[in-house]
Amino acid sequence: MKKFMTLILAAVMCLPLMADAYRDALLHYLKVSNTVNTEAFSQSIEQLAESAFADNPQLGKKIVSEYIETQLMEDMTDIFLPAYRKYVSESDIKQLENMYNDPHFAQIQKKSIDIASNLQDKPEFSEFMTQYQQAIQVIMQDGTPEDLQRPVSVSGEYARVFNDYYVNSGTKEIINSSFRQVMDVLQNAFKEQGIGDQKTKQLLTRVQQYTDKNMPVMLMSIFNKEITLRDLQYLTEIITREPNQHAIRASLEMTSDLMGLVLQIMEGMDKWVNVHYPQHGKTFDELIKQTRALLNR
Known about the structure:
With about 300 residues, this protein is mostly helical. The chain contains 16 helices and no strands. It has helices spanning about 1-10, 20-35, 40-50, 55-70, 70-85, 90-100, 105-115, 125-140, 155-170, 170-180, 185-190, 195-225, 230-240, 240-255, 260-275, 280-295. The radius of gyration is 20 Å and the shape is globular. The chain starts with a helix and ends with a helix. Mean pLDDT is about 85; it is low at about 15-20.
C-alpha cells in the first residue's frame, strides 16, 4: 500500500498525440520544474519491478532505470497534456517556467516536491500510517480514535499559513480525491465483516472525517522541519497567482482518477518494455494484471 501511495503522491506533487509547440513547451517545463521527480519514480517502480523479477531483481532494476532515463518524461508529458491543454495556456507555461529562474522559488518548490515524493521515508508518515490503520479498527468497533496533536514546535502562525498552503495548493482536494478512490477497498473490507450498507456509510464518513483532520497535521509536522515560515509564506503567495492556479486545476483533473493515473504510468512502461525487451514483456504484462487486480480495475 505504501508503494502505491508514494507512486500516486509523486505523480501529484506531481496519450500519444502528435508533437506540437505546446507539447514541446510542456515537456520543457516539466523537466525544468522537476514536476516529475524521476528519482522518486525510480525508487517506487524499481520495487515493483524487482518483485516481478524475483529471480533476477537486478535485471528488473536495469530495465526500469533505462526506461526512466529514455522514455519516462515523454510518457508523462503525454499523460499531463490533455488536462494542461484544457486549463493552462502556452503563456501560462512560459510564466510558470520563468518562476524557476528565481533560485529561491526553485529551491523551496523542490523541497515541497521532495517531501511528497519521499513521504514513505519520513518517520512521521510511518507513524501516521500505523495510527491510521489502528484508527480504522477503532472506528469499526464504534470507538473514537485519538487525533494527532500539533507538535509544540509548530507555531500558531505556521499552522495558519500551512493551512492556506494546504488548501490553495490543491493538496487537500487531491487527498480527498485519493480517499474517495480507496472507498471501494474499505467498503469491501467492511462488508466482509458482515457490516450492512447503512452502517458502512456511517463508518466511511467517520474515516473521512479522521483523515481530513489528521492528514494535514502529519504533513505540517514534516513541513515545519524542512521549510521555514518565511519560505512557506512566500510559496503560498506564489501558488495563488493565476498561472499556478491554472496548473493546479489541471493537476486536480488528472488526479480525479488516481488509480487510472497509476495504471497509465505502468502501462506506458509496459509498452516500452514490450518494444525494447520483448523477451520480458510477459513479465511486465503480468505485473499490470496484478496491479489492476489490486486497484480493482
